[in-house]
Design a protein that fits this description.
Blueprint (H helix, E strand, L loop, with lengths): L1 E3 L13 E4 L7 H17 L3 E7 L2 H5 L11 H8 L6 E6 L2 H5 L2 H13 L3 E5 L12 H11 L2 E5 L12 H9 L3 H8 L4 E7 L4 H4 L5 E4 L9 E8 L5 E9 L10 E6 L10 E11 L7 H21 L1
Parallel strand pairs: 1-4, 2-3, 2-5, 3-4, 5-6
Antiparallel strand pairs: 7-8, 7-12, 8-11, 9-10, 9-12, 10-11
Length: about 300
């Protein structure tokens, strides 16, 4: 899959796709339905299958001081899209020019002229253009004039009648309901980042951790999780992790601290991806390092039990 980071001056080989349009943060099952619709159109037309998204997320552009909210990085998005048969990811820069475009200008300049799309698939609640003035119906009308077709994918609900959405994933994560988050996403929620140096207190009690800053990831429920981490060399290691501000030490910035079970090695500077498989308990303060060590060992045993059953 190719990743294209602009819509201007593209070669013909990168034009003419049938695309799914949207932010696609999380690439959850609702998003996957829109992408599958674009893929089906691509197969009918004999065209590449594409996804059009934005970087940064439009919400971050318009709400620069908003709390962290992302469900995935751009790299994780590309990784999630590849198995869906996507040929091209158009990760378009959301800048002042993009933010100021009217809906008709976006259809004309970006979709028709820039990308030369042959088909656009969107969700039923898709909006676009300055002030979010464009709707699926408007896009269909623009497409008729500009030479591309449009399909609209209707709302997709879970077994309980709840909408499959990025907001629903965030609500589940805030509640520590990792099973529901994974059911909507189609995979466990995962945090990817570089292993950084911490205060190394864990080493003093035999529990060395790989520490990862959360950046713009939304903050799941603070507490202890059973985890699986994929290392840079492809190995997947079971673990137990603390996510939060550590009440005993009052971190200023929340941190993910992963104890990789049955592992020894230096991971500083490497990028790892950690799946939060199950929430085990909330954050607690302990009366000294020995009490903390005892609890961590109990958490590790609980994590092993959860992970062996999953």
């Amino acid at each position: 899959m190719q990743v294209v980071r602009d819509w201007r001056d593209l070669p013909d080989a990168l034009k003419g796709a049938a695309v799914a349009l949207g932010a696609f943060d999380g690439v959850h099952r609702g998003h996957q339905a829109v992408i599958a619709d674009a893929k089906a159109a691509a197969d009918r037309l004999g065209a590449p299958a594409g996804v059009v998204s934005f970087d940064p997320h439009p919400r971050r552009w318009f709400q620069k001081d908003a709390a962290p909210f992302r469900l995935m990085t751009a790299d994780q998005m590309a990784q999630a899209l590849a198995p869906l048969g996507v040929d091209i990811l158009y990760l378009l820069p959301f800048d002042a020019e993009m933010a100021g475009m009217t809906d008709v200008a976006f259809a004309e300049r970006v979709l028709a002229q820039g990308l030369g799309v042959r088909h656009a698939a969107v969700g039923f609640d898709f909006t676009f253009g300055k002030g979010r003035s464009g709707s699926p119906e408007a896009l269909r009308a623009y497409g008729e004039r500009l030479g591309f077709t449009v399909s609209v994918v209707q709302r997709l609900d879970d077994a309980d009648g709840l909408k499959l959405s990025s907001s629903a994933v965030r609500e589940a994560l805030k509640a520590g309901d990792m099973a529901r988050a994974a059911a909507i996403l189609g995979r466990p929620f995962a945090i990817r980042g570089e292993v950084i140096h911490g205060d190394k207190r864990g080493r003093t009690i035999g529990v060395p951790t790989a520490n990862v800053a959360l950046g713009d990831y939304m903050r799941p429920a603070y507490g202890v999780y059973a985890t699986r981490s994929r290392l840079a060399d492809g190995r997947v290691i079971d673990g137990v992790a603390s996510l939060g501000v550590r009440p005993m030490y009052a971190l200023e910035t929340p941190l993910l601290e992963v104890w990789l079970l049955d592992f020894a090695g230096d991971l500083y500077g490497q990028t790892i991806e950690t799946e939060l498989v199950a929430w085990l308990r909330g954050e607690e303060a302990f009366d000294g390092l020995e009490a903390l060590k005892t609890q961590i060992e109990a958490d590790a045993a609980a994590a092993r039990a959860v992970l062996s059953a999953s």
